[in-house]
Design a protein that fits this description.
The chain is 78% helix and 0% strand. By secondary structure, the chain is an all-alpha fold.
Length: 130
């Protein structure tokens, strides 16, 4: 359970920051997503993002692959999603626009920010207060 608490604290802070950023600076985050998904000159950023997602996802999965019906399964799911995202970014970098392009457009960046904020609050509650 100590690993779950530590990871919940780490993920909650990142998700809270990114969620608030997406809500208050939607234009900026929209440009970031557009640059990453549509700009061929950002190959290094795509590679670095894939490597980072794979490493963090793998660290979570190796240390916390817990499939039980409690709040800790959220951490496991985030770990697996990170690992899958890293795989896609590293193996099929040209497909990111096809796979995720319609999810993160200017119109719904605030929706994703709100979702990130909710996940951050949820994990922050269990990581810091419960």
């Amino acid at each position: 359970m100590e690993v779950a608490i530590l990871v919940a604290k780490l993920i909650s802070v990142i998700y809270l920051f990114v969620g608030l950023g997406m809500l208050f600076s939607a234009e900026y985050y929209s440009r970031v997503v557009t640059d990453l998904l549509h700009d061929e000159d950002n190959a290094a950023a795509m590679y670095f993002g894939g490597a980072l997602a794979a490493v963090v996802g793998l660290l979570i999965v190796l240390n916390h692959n817990v499939w039980e019906s409690s709040w800790v399964v959220v951490i496991t799911i985030i770990g697996w999603l990170g690992l899958i995202k890293g795989f896609i970014l590293l193996v099929f970098p040209g497909k990111m626009d096809v796979i995720f392009g319609s999810w993160f457009n200017k119109g719904n960046i605030r929706v994703w920010g709100f979702i990130a904020l909710l996940i951050g609050l949820f994990l922050g509650y269990y990581g810091f207060f419960a």
